[in-house]
User: What shape does this take?
Amino acid sequence: MKITKQDLKNISLLSKIKIDDKTSSTLIQDLESILTMVNKMEELETAEINPLTHPIESTQTLREDIEKKDIEREKFQELSKEKDSGFYLTPKVIE
Assistant: This one.
């Protein structure tokens, strides 16, 4: 597909991107090559291909969710400067 300078100007106006004259010729060539590639992709026969939700059909193995009581709260609270009834006391951060 051929892109003219007027097409590029319209794209620039719609996208609100300033395109200077130095880069316009390069940009036109790049856009034309992209459109050529898209046209080639449209020629492919895809009627027999089933749609994929994900290209990899493996699933992630998760570990079993088992409750453990291996945290020694009392031991950790001995390291804290301020505590009350099993809770850590912190400075007030919201006034």
